[in-house]
Every structure is written in C-alpha cells, then in structure tokens.
Amino acid sequence: MPGYRLTLEYDGTSFSGWQVQPTRRTVAGELSAALATLDGTAPRITAAGRTDAGAHAHGQVAGVTLTRSWDPVRLRAAANSVLPDDVAVVDAAVEVDGFDARRDAVDRVYKYVVVSRQVRAPVTQRYSWTVRGPLDTNAMRDAAGMLAGRRDFAALGGATHPQGDTVRTVHEASVERSLFPAGRGGPSIDALIITVRADAFLRGMMRAIAGALVKVGQRRATPAWLADVLARTERRSAEVTLAPARGLHQWAVTYGTRTVARTA
User: Fold this and answer.
1) For the stretch 52-63, what's the b/e string if a residue is b when 16 or more beta carbons lie within 10 angstroms of its beta carbon?
2) 52 among known catalytic residues
3) Domain layout of the chain by residue ranges
4) 107-255 adopts what CATH topology?
5) Which of 11, 39, 52, 104 is catalytic?
C-alpha cells in the first residue's frame, strides 16, 4: 500500500496535544478522521513528535499508509477540504515503503517564544509566554550554550516511553530577539526566540529549557546554576519550571539530507 509524508501546520490552542485520546480533541484524531473520510479507513499514523496540549506546529511530519494511490497535490487539497480550520496539510509527498516519521528523523528543531513586557499581551498570548520586566539576554545566551552536546537530560524531561533512556544530543541552542510569525496570516511577535536543534526531545524538555533560560534571564539564577542542573541525572528537577505550552512551536524535522520545515 502506498505511503505518504504529510507536513502539517496547526494552532494547538484548542487541541489536547497530538496523540489520539478517546474523549478529547487531538491533532492526530482530526487527521485520522479526515484521512478515513478520504480513504475509507483510518490509517496508521506516525509522527515526528508528540506536541503538548496547547503547543503549535509549523513543520510537523506525519507518515501514513493509505489503501489507494494519490497524487500528492490532490491528497493535500483533499485532506484540507475535510480538516478543521486550525490544522492544515501544507505539503504531501510519496515516501518509501515503511517510512516512519519518528524513527527515520535525524533531528528536530523547536522554538519557544517569550514576550518581555510590563503589561499583558492580548494579541500574542495564544502563541507566546509573556513575562514581566526585562530579561538579561546575554545571560540567557551563556546558559543556552551549556546545552550543546550529548548527555543525560533527565533533569529537564522524562523518557518518551517506559524504561526509555533520557540521553539526547543537542546540536545547537540559541536565544535571539526577532519578529516571530505566530501562525499563517497571524501577527508577527517582537520576542525573544529560544531555538534548540536536537536528535530528539524528552517529554517536557523544550518547555523546561525555556523555563530555565527565562529564570536565568530574570536573574533569579545564573548560567552556572543551569550547568549544575544539567549535571544531575535524576528525574526533572523541581528547580526548573515548565514554561507554558502556548509558547512552544515545533518547527522542522530533518530526514537524511532533507529538512521538512515551515513553508511560506
């Protein structure tokens, strides 16, 4: 049966995350229902990552096997005709037999958006974490630089399955001030953007990284504190607060030499 790679963009505000849940609205649930409408049966779906409730995606990748052959352009159009407005297939491609969006991924990129201001940010609150007062971006950059490398990140997240290991490789981490495109046709946010590229992420890892870097930026901790946290190998440290899911944006996935990312 033919396999396809679907690139998805979604506003996660009204979803209870990616993974199918019997009594909750999820991205995978909506995608499965849409493909069942087109193909006659709900397909098995693999995903590059399982985003949290409220988190957004710009280049999420799903692998599906359908019972009939589709031209990728027609498949994208047909899927979008039955998907709800807060999720879209932005690209579709034929894949090799046995393609698995999670296992075949080489690395992934997540971004976390922080808005620093004294008052609420009603226009951007769906897509970012608003923190009061200034942030020390230089200290945040120094702390982010400590994340690179292969190590046990248990202090920042949990294994993705029982008895799974918590060792991951962070290829690069950065903190930059930039205009961030919140969603297709949505507002651009003047914000601090935390970007992390890694081979894979633990549960809650990116939100823990954002929480730790903001703590450093608020001068409630130092980069040396984060180094100490990273040296621990027990479960997620109580000293690290998970940043809200609404500021988390899944951005891109690499397969071999191909990077699947947000499209214009």
Assistant:
1) bbbbbbbbbbbb
2) yes
3) 3-95, 107-255
4) Alpha-Beta Plaits (3.30.70)
5) 52
